Amino acid sequence: xxxxxxxxxxxxxxxxxxxxxxxxxxxxxxxxxxxxxxxxxxxxxxxxxxxxxxxxxxxxxxxxxxxxxxxxxxxxxxxxxxxxxxxxxxxxxxxxxxxxxxxxxxxxxxxxxxxxxxxxxxxxxxxxxxxxxxxxxxxxxxxxxxxxxxxxxxxxxxxxxxxxxxxxxxxxxxxxxxxxxxxxxxxxxxxxxxxxxxxxxxxxxxxxxxxxxxxxxxxxxxxxxxxxxxxxxxxxxxxxxxxxxxxxxxxxxxxxxxxxxxxxxxxxxxxxxxxxxxxxxxxxxxxxxxxxxxxxxxxxxxxxxxxxxxxxxxx
Amino acid sequence: xxxxxxxxxxxxxxxxxxxxxxxxxxxxxxxxxxxxxxxxxxxxxxxxxxxxxxxxxxxxxxxxxxxxxxxxxxxxxxxxxxxxxxxxxxxxxxxxxxxxxxxxxxxxxxxxxxxxxxxxxxxxxxxxxxxxxxxxxxxxxxxxxxxxxxxxxxxxxxxxxxxxxxxxxxxxxxxxxxxxxxxxxxxxxxxxxxxxxxxxxxxxxxxxxxxxxxxxxxxxxxxxxxxxxxxxxxxxxxxxxxxxxxxxxxx
Lengths: 315, 251
Ligand SMILES: [Fe+2]
Ligand SMILES: [Fe+2]
Hints:
The complex is a heterodimer of chains A (315) and B (251). Chain A has helices at 3-15, 28-53, 62-87, 93-102, 118-139, 145-173, 177-196, 208-213, 221-239, 264-274, 278-314, and strands spanning 249-251, 256-258. Chain A has 315 residues and is mainly alpha-helical. A two-stranded antiparallel sheet of chain A has the order 1-2. Chain B has a single domain (4-245), classed as Up-down Bundle (Ferritin). Chains A and B meet through α2, α3 and α11 of A and α2, α3, α5, α6 and α10 of B.
């Protein structure tokens, strides 16, 4: 079959809402786009373990410590599923790790902000996992089968994380004035970066059009961002803390909240490596990778020795 | 308190799990691979689960306003009863694995005995924890073999970790007055039996791992009496930070 008819068949499948599987023919650009997006997603799960892991040893109660450990462990699991999904497209996990460490591959910029207080753990669960879910629920219907299936598993856990984070915030807001102040401070710092998680405005998003056409994405960045704001504002009201946006107002006509301007300069600064923690996050992953090298080598060497012994026995 | 000795025995059991769990939790996200990160976090989670069971029971015995958290976070350093080995730092992955393996080799036969404790709550906690501890021992034994019989570098690092940690092992076997009293009441374990089983496991795994047991004398340490290493203050400053900085609050 020539390329043209393969392409036609591929496009027809997408149009019919069928999923694309690893063995199916796909355009090189579709494959590349997926490797980029899935590995970026996996890296986000992995790098995201760092700011949250930062509070495990200092969690304020045993119950919260166990929950946070379990959460960070879930994120490691998400990273694993996603790396496996990306591997079906012909890239290895080691290659992806190297792309992360070299800066060639990106991860979600939100994790380049520091976690400064315990309330940040609540705010991340509530807002960051909350924003992630909105994106990921959409991705459960994405056209590439392994990615969509990974998302189904991941989404269940993310919504648990979101509820857990919100519950931390609720406890703080029902607590002492000091605790409520921690919650407000965390919301102040995490609100705008959370909105930035949906990416640039549609007009400036280089990948949106193609992604929509291939049903990688089914909603635009701006649509998803609006959906997040509409869901989150009433939740902030229940907590009794204020979203740091004086322009945030219900718009009866649109049936949505209006909101103020996002600082896109900050967004691009952080994307381009100048956020507060970009260097620290990569340095931490680089250190783990370098210090783990002898361990990974030992595991390989031991497996080879075992294999040799087995062969000797059967010879 | 009527059950002062039982209370202190529970602290001993819980503190070992807590401080080791704390050390493992420091590694989350910083391990050599995602798989080991997940496994070590799992072990940490199991250990903290055990801590909660022990301390909930201890809080019941203590009465007043005691809770699992006041017991975990609001004691002074001298009142922690863990052995020194679990405080030892995550110097490298070899130290993490050797520390875990030595502790697991002791933990499994300890729990096997506690399953038959006259104290029903301890017996129930042990019955639940034994499955976890056996899994931990399998994991750490496998890694002992991988690292010991892997590359030259991994062998050297693991032997160095063993040389450092092995002398601390003996404190776990050394019967303190509280442990003696609990044994005699049929509540606590007989550490001489635990020691035999533990050493048998260690000898077997160390041999397979092509490592050798260091000949050094046991280190003179008294963690069970609350005389800790210099690491302990730093562990507690993390562990207790929130409870100390924001006292009397719900989280
Ligand atoms: Fe996740
Ligand atoms: Fe999550």
